Amino acid sequence: MNYSEDELLPISALADIVFCERRAALHRLEEIWQESVSTIEGHLLHDKVHTGEGESRGEVRIARGLRLRSLRLGLSGVADVFEFHRLEEGMEGIVLPGVSGRWIPFPVEYKRGVVRHEESFECQLCAQALCLEEMLNCHIPAGALFYGLSRRRKDILLTNELRHVTEEAAVRLHQVVNAGVTPPAHYEKKCKKCSLLAQCMPQLAGKHDSVRDYLGRTLKSLIREEYATSSRPNAVTCR
Ligand code: SF4
Predict the structure, then answer these.
(1) Domain at 5-198, CATH class
(2) Ligand 1 centroid from CA 194, angstroms
């Protein structure tokens, strides 16, 4: 079964759900966003990449800000960079308009910081490849993550295992959004680097609370306390 255009969810939300289901729900269901120095740096890096022109470097053509979508996975988004590498004669690949030969697409996703292993980044990259594979009816075997601070690129093989994890994450993302229920908080090591830490309150929110539930309960208890204080008889009552 394919999704309709109206049901498409952002590829960035897929990265969220791989990192933490609650984070994806806080963004998509509770519309809680929090900018931090790192998220702003990330936006600036992506803006810079997207506004660059397409270019040619030897046997590589570079497209920036390519719009992507997959009706099969129910995802859409914009790729930072798609390189197209020229293939040797006789090899299977796609045709590019106005250029001779056969080409193979190679997605490159820009990230801030230094080279590291983040499954959510790899799934995001893989989702971009899966979208373009569906759009162009082709196979994309690999891509790369480019880390802005260290200016280093890490090649990622789009293995069957990574494809499977990515497809499962897309299904889960739609399930969480359709269910409309924010999963409970579990405080883990990764929470320390989550930009929603202050809003999520994983150590306080309790096992079954959404942030709204928690804030609502806290507010009710404050009102109760205030009412109890104001209705308490004074030490001296004038009649
Ligand atoms: S703070 Fe932790 S539990 Fe809360 S959204 Fe972030 S990663 Fe998830």
Answers:
(1) alpha beta
(2) 6
What ranges do the domains of the chain cover? 5-198
For residue 35, the number of C-alpha atoms closer than 13 Å in the C-beta half-sphere is: 6
Nearest CA-CA partner of 185 in 166, 221, 213, 218? 213
Choose one of 187, 196, 208, 214 to mutate for the ligand 1 pocket test, by most ligand atoms within 8 angstroms of C-beta. 196
Atom of ligand 1 nearest to the CA of 194: 6
Distance CA 167, CA 164 (A): 5
pTM above 0.70, yes or no: yes
Which ligand 1 atom sits nearest the alpha carbon of residue 20?
Answer: 8
Ligand 1 centroid distance, CA of 49 (Å) = 28
User: Residues lining ligand 1, judged by CB closer than 6 Å?
Assistant: 20, 22-23, 26, 185-186, 190-191, 194, 196-197, 200, 202
- The ligand 1 atom at the shortest distance from the C-alpha of residue 185 is 3
Evaluate if residue 6 carries a pLDDT over 90. Answer: yes
Q: What is the pLDDT of residue 23?
A: 95
Share of the chain above pLDDT 90, in %: 61
What sign for the dihedral angle of Cα 89, 95, 96, 97?
positive
Q: What is the pLDDT of residues 59-94, one digit of tens each?
A: 999 999 999 999 999 999 999 999 999 999 889 999
Torsion of CA 222, 225, 226, 230, to 10 degrees: 180
* Contact predicate 81/141, CB 8 Å: no
What per-residue confidence (pLDDT) applies to 112? 87
